[in-house]
Design a protein that fits this description.
Blueprint lengths: L1 E9 L10 H10 L4 E7 L8 E5 L2 E5 L2 E4 L11 E4 L12 H10 L3 E4 L27 E6 L3 H4 L4 H9 L10 H12 L5 E8 L2 E5 L2 E5 L2 H5 L2 E7 L7 H14 L2 E5 L9 E5 L4 E2 L3 E4 L3 E6 L5 E6 L2 E7 L3 E6 L3 E11 L2 E8 L2 E5 L1
Parallel strand pairs: 1-2, 1-9, 2-4, 2-5, 7-8, 8-9, 16-23
Antiparallel strand pairs: 1-12, 3-4, 5-6, 6-7, 10-11, 12-13, 13-22, 14-15, 14-17, 17-20, 18-19, 18-21, 21-22, 21-23
């Protein structure tokens, strides 16, 4: 399968970002991405989808949307909607109706930054997701790059420190998000995890200093979603959009923090009477072999139904045979800037009874 590196959940000047779609494409090209998915707030920007081709490389841009009820106070329930191909923000006041409309439109819905605390000294409110009993969503944003700033900045001093040293921010997905994901999976749901940057490229003034806070290039070298697709981008915009959306729908993906070391090449697969990759179901007939292929040295944890069942250190190939059903996913951690940090988080393989 082909691996496409995608950065999603980012904003342009059509909402509260500062860059144009051309700026986004240029940054994506510099950072080696294959796909970028802008999600401006409550507006589906039309006519911007397309490609940038340069030096034998191609980057595709496909617009999506981040929808929330702007009249709700305090603000909650931000939803990333991909592939709906029509404006759905008018349905934001009723999240279940919004999800129903997304399904009718053939789109995908992900709950954005499920746990995001307030940052009052910057005027940022708590925008945690609260309605977990909804039906018909595709998945959740497991790791949000901008949201994590709030977790690691208990004071104004630390917020300013991280503005100037942003590489110190990422540690991993919010523990509550990981726990909620495992809870949803344990209840029998198929829930696809994606990683988002929430890039805005904000321009701010600090006394005599003018600075773009977390430019697109920073985010595009950080938390990305790696998609496994049947082939590379073809140049046919409609076909490529369908292929990318199908990879998201199937959960053929993993979340990679690409700044410490490239995560391209990671794989988690199942071999048995039925074989599969992340997002697939494998039937338990005489045992299933789970194989993990690493792109570099790291601590690798195999999670079954929310609990660690095996840990490896600095192995390129990790193998585990299971004779019991369960939802299996992988977490990988790497040393960077003096700390162990999250590096790779796979989507699950669902091992079911035969």
């Amino acid at each position: 399968m082909e691996e496409l590196v995608a950065n999603l959940h980012l904003h342009t000047r059509y909402s509260d970002g500062t860059g144009s779609h051309q700026d986004v494409l240029a940054a994506a090209m510099r950072c080696g991405l294959d796909v970028v998915i802008p999600t401006d707030h409550n507006v589906l920007v039309q006519g911007m989808d397309g490609y940038l081709r340069q030096d034998g490389r191609t980057v595709m841009l496909m617009c999506a949307e981040e929808i929330h009820d702007q009249k709700r106070a305090p603000q909650k329930n931000h939803m990333l909607v991909f592939g709906a191909n029509r404006e759905l923000a008018t349905f934001a006041s009723n999240p279940q109706n919004l999800l129903d409309q997304v399904q009718k439109s053939g789109g995908l819905a992900f709950f954005a930054h499920p746990f995001e605390k307030a940052m009052p000294f910057f005027g940022e409110t708590d925008i945690t997701w609260v309605d977990w009993d909804l039906k018909g969503f595709t998945g959740i944003e497991l790791w949000n790059g901008f949201s994590e700033l709030k977790e690691v900045s208990p004071s104004l001093f630390w917020a300013i420190f991280h503005v100037f040293f942003p590489a110190t921010i990422p540690h991993g997905p919010h523990p509550d998000t990981l726990a909620q994901w495992d809870k949803l999976l344990a209840a029998g749901n198929r829930v696809v995890a994606v990683g988002g940057s929430d890039a805005h490229a904000l321009r701010r003034t600090f006394g005599p200093i003018r600075k773009t806070i977390f430019p697109y290039d920073y985010h595009f070298n950080a938390i990305n979603t790696h998609l496994l697709t049947p082939g590379p981008l073809s140049g046919d915009l409609n076909a490529d959009r369908r292929m990318v959306l199908q990879a998201f729908r199937d959960g053929h993906a993993f979340v990679g923090y690409d700044r410490p070391a490239p995560t391209r090449g990671f794989r988690c697969s199942a071999q048995g009477e039925e074989s599969g990759v992340m997002g697939d179901t494998s039937r338990l007939r005489g045992g299933v072999t789970l194989q993990i292929r690493m792109p570099g040295e790291a601590e690798v944890r195999l999670i079954q139904d929310g609990a660690v069942v095996k840990t490896w250190h600095n192995q390129e190939i990790c193998t585990h045979i299971t004779n019991t059903p369960g939802v299996f996913r992988v977490e990988c951690y790497i040393r960077f800037l003096g700390k162990s940090r999250g590096w790779i988080f796979s989507n699950p393989i669902y091992v079911r009874e035969g």
